[in-house]
Design brief:
The protein contains 13 helices and 21 strands. With 498 residues, the chain is α+β, with helices and mostly antiparallel strands. It has 3 domains: 155 residues, D-Maltodextrin-Binding Protein, domain 2 (3-Layer(aba) Sandwich), CATH 3.40.190.10; 111 residues, Dipeptide-binding Protein, domain 1, CATH 3.90.76.10; 199 residues, Dipeptide-binding Protein, Domain 3 (Dipeptide-binding Protein, domain 3, Roll). The protein is globular and about 65 Å long.
Amino acid sequence: MTMHRREALASSLAAAAALAAPRALAQSKKDTVTLAMVLEPPGLDPTTAPAAAIGEIVHYNVLEGLTKINVDGKVTPLLAESWSMDPDGKSYTFRLRRGVKYQDGEPFDSSAVKFSFERAKAPNSTNKAKKAVFDNISSIAAPDAHTVILTLNNADGNFLFRMGENTAVILHPKSADSTATRPVGTGPYRFEDWKKGTSVTLVKWDGFRDAKAIRIKRITFRFINDPAAAVAALLAGDVDGMPRFNAPEAVKRFQADKRFTVEIGSTAGKGIMAINNKRKPFDDVRVRRALAHAIDRKAFIDGVLDGLAKPIGSHFAPTDAGYIDLTGMYPYDPEKSKALLKEAGAATPLNVTLTLPPPQYARKGGEVVAAMLAKVGVIAKLENVEWAQWLGGAFKGNFDLTIINHVEPLDYMQYANPSYYWGYDSKAFRDLASRHAAATDPKERARLFADIQRMIATDCVNVFIFNPSQVCVAKKGLKGLWASSPIFANDISAVSWQ
């Protein structure tokens, strides 16, 4: 961390501490909660946009799917009360909950499920899980109002997990089109207000099937992407907690403060320096490998994340099924990096643009990465962009290099999509992914999972840097916030003041 950043954070901490000192921490009413989150979502429909911030607000709170992924990663029933699977793993029969309604009074039944999945499968669908999940569904049958039968082209051992991700929430035909601005779901909270640039507020829905169990009546999500401002808001009592705390250098400060609880858990995140594989000279694997050898993962994790992460060597998190450690494939080796650039005929200094979205791991990490790249003759111009700009630019393939944390679990199938923003086009990988999808023997699936990770790493599609820990900071007495993120969600139904 540069000295001016440390000094700025120190002064912010001091100012916030002074602000909070004369009075006790402001205590929200026992039935309201204000949480801070880093990014403001571009909309509130998780089925049409890729931003993880959407799920942080609406998933499990407003919108629900057939299954639920819990904080421990286990899959349990949600809108489906039970299910069965055919022996070949290609057909699932879901029995739906009865008596469930949407917040506008419309009934939830098998026709809503059929509509939602056909919408996700449609040729014009922008659902980010389309290729991996919905294109694999060959038929959707609704023999009665409370039964849905999904038949797959290829068996998918992760299918029930996929049905619990926010891309698989069940929308109603009458309200689906307005979900991005006014989501209507079957969950315990209904959408109340979105103050653009500031916050989204949800309120308890009294028509929820288990409304008596919901303790929090109003939840406000405030957008604070500046780490020092997040620290100040917590210390001043302006927010009650931050489940994904973004100032790792301030963790010890909160651990020492008896007014707060700090929990450190795991995530499915893969922090990477994504590379545009379609642009020269990055279309040469030797150049991509040179970039990988130029990055010191440990220095990045220590300097940017205060050690609160694990190094990774492919697009899998240590918590993912089938994970293997490939961090030894590209050890930090500036001389090897220079030699590979020379071998590839990439003239140095090589001028590139490094695009950085708002999170601290990107903005602060970009400075660290640029300094590492400079040592091997790669001069990175830092381009700071807002989240909407990143989604409209880098995520559409308009970039050289960018730093981003991919938080979706088991999202390796993006490497089978040549139109995905990093532009990796490998028939060999697509064939390997298809063999894995069709495999039913657990040992064979594990072997193919290892092969998938090795191929992504061998082709050095991106530079794989870190799997972040999750830090959850909250006022003492606020219980039930997720301290780990198998998916990006905030299940407020489990939250209460004690």
